[in-house]
Amino acid sequence: MKFKIAILGSGNLAWHLAPSLENAGHTITEIYSRDIRNAEKLAERVYVAEVKDDLDFSESEAEIYILAVSDSAISELADQIILPEESILVHTSGSVPLNILGYSSAAYTGIFYPLQTFSKIRKVDFEEVPFLLESEDEPSLHKLKKLAKSLSPLQYVVKSKDRLALHVAAVFAGNFTNHMLLKAEEIMARQGLEFEMLKPLIIESISKSLEIGAKKAQTGPALREDLSTLDLHYNFLGYNEQLAEIYRMVSQDIMDSHL
Amino acid sequence: MKFKIAILGSGNLAWHLAPSLENAGHTITEIYSRDIRNAEKLAERVYVAEVKDDLDFSESEAEIYILAVSDSAISELADQIILPEESILVHTSGSVPLNILGYSSAAYTGIFYPLQTFSKIRKVDFEEVPFLLESEDEPSLHKLKKLAKSLSPLQYVVKSKDRLALHVAAVFAGNFTNHMLLKAEEIMARQGLEFEMLKPLIIESISKSLEIGAKKAQTGPALREDLSTLDLHYNFLGYNEQLAEIYRMVSQDIMDSHL
């Protein structure tokens, strides 16, 4: 099942999604961006009939319209977009409920949420991207499943409430782990130490955690309730109050989680 | 260069270090633990002449004495241990300074700190363990380098002050990332969702971070300063005030770190 698809947005997700959809045999009919230059940049990555910065899609041949924009832009775009009959409008957000698309001119609405981290400068293997799907219309859900399946073997049908929980968990699992690595990098750099030294520890920590579960995998001064080391570390971080406070709170939460 | 080595301690590190030292051709002369039963358990993993729960090593044939005990026990053991002449006493801690061994009966002192996470239930590949070494005595430092080299290609000579910074960074990079994964697991479990769904995201987040650096790798609602999603997530976590507060603080720190 091959689809004609319009992409709205030109950010990190759209950047990778458009070429992958094309590679999977679908046709990108239009790329929309508020700033036409961004749409043009993305259009260099795929064959596309039209780039545009207006929301009149009444003449579009697409069946599926993918809103790959920031959460805060979804509602406005959904309200303003002019769609042909029988079209399916989906958004790609982890946190925005399905019903936000309810006032749009779309015949059907749905969610097409790729649970992955996307940066323009790094290629993404869509085979490793779980797609979280939702629609109240069975035929539309079926089509979204087919579309997801053309990109990845991992698809899940998830209700909006569960998707929010999942997105919160994903922020901890992805963004927050990455932020802890940034803080580690900064602490090392400040002392003139090579971050490289920490890489084996990072790789082993994550591998162990995924294999035996994070609870059993935990080690370190907070788990041991080694208060004098915790104090030493807290004082060491005195040059950055906010960082010291994060150290204190996360350490406290480790202790509380392992009672 | 093969050494005769006494191990003091029977925790996660000693558990893996003793057999690895033996495999590398060294001889474990004694295993000490405050609780002799723990020493006996570890002695089942290696050939060892003596297990003991007293600190009189005056008759020991070992040259190197490794304190693989919790940070808080180091000072007391170092003060009480009775060592033969010309012996080298080292501890394995990331945070305790070298001079804490200064009042011991050891002729020479040093640090032999493996920068890795150790759990008894998971095998560790010592080839992937960086050893951080320190000694004020050149011949002792040379021996510690040889000893580390027999286990791993990764050795660094690091002063106590830098080692503390490194240990703080290691807590962020290892323990805290693992704790973020635990929180993600718990959020998923509470909603009846499979943690499995998050694994591709976790693997990609860490791989990306290690490859392009955590700063460039960051994505998510905090980076986008998407305040309405942050609010939504914060409110979702209302069932656990401490967790919500961690969400708020780390998100704030992500925003502040990417100004």
UniProtKB/TrEMBL annotation, chains A, B:
It comes from the Bacteria. Residues 4-90 form the Pyrroline-5-carboxylate reductase catalytic N-terminal domain. It holds the Pfam family DUF2520. InterPro entries: 6-PGluconate_DH-like_C_sf (IPR008927), DUF2520 (IPR018931), NAD(P)-bd_dom_sf (IPR036291), P5C_Rdtase_cat_N (IPR028939), TM1727-like_C_sf (IPR037108). Residues 129-253 form the DUF2520 domain. PANTHER family: CONSERVED HYPOTHETICAL ALANINE AND LEUCINE RICH PROTEIN. This is DUF2520 domain-containing protein. It comes from Rhodonellum psychrophilum GCM71 = DSM 17998.
